[in-house]
């Protein structure tokens, strides 16, 4: 038996994004006594994801590509995050500014006590992402803050 790879995480991201936007999971059935997890599994394996008309074509395409059932054809399988970030739904996103923390967050975090430092301080993957694009000298090092620290 084989474990899962990053493509499974992109699938999960697609499910999460769908639920955040639509308010329900992409594959949902009300459980009754005669239904089982097998029925839900069968639905995931065979049914297409449905979207309301109000969803933009870019978002629909993005989520649909994340939820492709054949993981080898799923968005992100071949080139990881680079493939995800290049999707048209992200048109206009200043990835470098985001990585360098130059874009103000619409959410203001009052306290970081509920965040594990292990997940907040993953600088190596960010540095690799920046290096692949040749952005090393575009901004000062974002990880050398003098005005903020973990509480």
UniProtKB/TrEMBL annotation:
InterPro entries: Kinase-like_dom_sf, Prot_kinase_dom. The keyword Iron does not apply. It comes from the Eukaryota. Residues 1-90 form the Protein kinase domain. GO terms for cellular component: cAMP-dependent protein kinase complex. SUPFAM superfamilies: Protein kinase-like (PK-like) (SSF56112). The keyword Signal applies. Keywords: ATP-binding, Kinase, Nucleotide-binding, Serine/threonine-protein kinase, Signal, Transferase. Residues 1-23 form the signal peptide. GO terms for molecular function: ATP binding; cAMP-dependent protein kinase activity. PANTHER family: CAMP-DEPENDENT PROTEIN KINASE CATALYTIC SUBUNIT PRKX, CYCLIC NUCLEOTIDE-DEPENDENT PROTEIN KINASE. This is Protein kinase domain-containing protein.
